[in-house]
Every structure is written in structure tokens, then in C-alpha cells.
User: Fold this.
Amino acid sequence: MSKSPSIDNEAGKDFTICELDSAISKMRTKEAAGLNDIPLTYLKAFGPWARSHLLHIFNTSFREGVCAQV
Assistant:
């Protein structure tokens, strides 16, 4: 009987605020807005409260396997 594949310890963990900040800081602001029409300059200007809520949305989406429709 074969064992089922092991689950990566990192796979089930939520993203951290540091990971979100790092990803946002790497975004190029000269790029066009995405499908949601939110300019990257807005994301870079988010304060702690907005980033916290954005992180919550991302983590909930990944945890539940649901992606918001644009």
C-alpha cells in the first residue's frame, strides 16, 4: 500500500503582512491597471489598515479556494 504524498508545511499557511508588503514593493508603478482598474500607485499608497484588510481578502480567498469575479 503506497503512502499518500506529504503536504508541504508551507502550503496551508496564510500569507503574512511582510510577504504582502514585499510583493507590493516589487510591483512596477508604470504598468497599466489590471482587470480591476486599480492603479498600482493606489496599492503602494495603502496604509496599514487597508493592507491588513487586503491581506485578509487574499488569505480568505486562498483558504476557501474562491476567487472574486471582476
User: Anything to note?
Assistant: The CA atoms of residues 4 and 65 lie 22 Å apart. The longest helix spans residues 48-64. Residues 1-7 have pLDDT under 50 and may be disordered.
